[in-house]
């Protein structure tokens, strides 16, 4: 089932999310719905807060990105914890399904080590770099209540303030199902 993406200004996007247990109701169905929603929205990542759930779950599929490593990078992250990030920060233009039409350069470290549970609730600890690391960092920020626009300069943020306000009011072009904050 395709779920609506919660838009900028929705309170759930600013919540630090909580861990879930193996017995979380309908987890398999939730993950299937998240993947279906992400693909329908043409995204490469989706975090639970973006569909209105303040839980520590996100999914990624970087396979549309040419040259991404690991090849065909597709992964489910449950209760993740970034253990370490390192390297010289690099800028790259990011966007977000919750903030349609806005893209800005964001600086992030190029490598990370992360511990998480996979879709079978099996504990994993892996190292990622490059675009895979960036996608994980972006989605991880969501479960920490942060958005990519928080990482741009105050000047840039001020320049897009009107656009952000319009998104929160539902005045934005989008090609997928969205839910806007109630005013």
Description:
By secondary structure, the chain is α+β, with helices and mostly antiparallel strands. The protein has one domain (5-169): Peptide deformylase (Peptide Deformylase, Alpha-Beta Complex), CATH 3.90.45.10. Helix content is 23%, strand content 27%. The protein has four helices and nine strands, in the order βαβββββββαααβ. The strands form three sheets. The chain has a five-stranded antiparallel beta sheet, with helices on both faces. The longest helix is centred in the first third of the chain and has 14 residues, at 27-40.
Give a brief description.
This protein is of the alpha+beta class and 183 residues long. The protein has a single domain (5-169), classed as Peptide Deformylase, CATH 3.90.45.10.
Query: Largest sheet, described in full?
Result: 5 strands, antiparallel
Instruction: Name the shape in a single word.
Output: globular
As for the number of domains, it is 1
CATH superfamily (homologous) name:
Peptide deformylase
Structural class label: alpha+beta
Helix content: 10-25%
Task: Figure out the total of helices.
Answer: 4
First CA to last CA: what distance? 27 Å
**How confident overall, as mean pLDDT?**
96
Order of helices and strands: EHEEEEEEEHHHE
Number of strands: 9
Question: Are there runs of 5+ residues with pLDDT below 50, and where?
Answer: none
Strands of the biggest beta sheet: in what spatial order? 2-3-4-7-8
CATH fold-level assignment: Peptide Deformylase
């Amino acid at each position: 089932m395709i779920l609506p993406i919660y838009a900028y200004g929705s309170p759930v996007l600013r919540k630090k999310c909580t861990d879930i247990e193996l017995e979380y109701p309908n987890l398999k169905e939730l993950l299937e719905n998240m993947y279906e929603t992400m693909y329908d929205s043409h995204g490469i990542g989706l975090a639970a807060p973006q569909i209105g759930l303040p839980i520590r779950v996100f999914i990624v599929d970087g396979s549309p990105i040419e040259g991404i490593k690991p090849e065909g990078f597709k992964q489910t992250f449950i209760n993740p914890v970034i253990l370490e990030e390192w390297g010289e920060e690099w800028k790259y233009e990011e966007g977000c399904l919750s903030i349609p039409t806005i893209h800005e350069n964001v600086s992030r470290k190029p490598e990370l080590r992360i511990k998480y549970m996979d879709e079978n609730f099996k504990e994993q600890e892996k190292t990622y770099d490059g675009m895979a690391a960036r996608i994980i960092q972006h989605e991880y920020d969501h479960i920490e209540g942060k958005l990519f626009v928080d990482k741009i300069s105050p000047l840039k943020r001020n320049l897009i303030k009107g656009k952000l306000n319009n998104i929160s009011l539902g005045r934005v072009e989008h090609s997928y199902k969205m839910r806007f904050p109630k005013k």
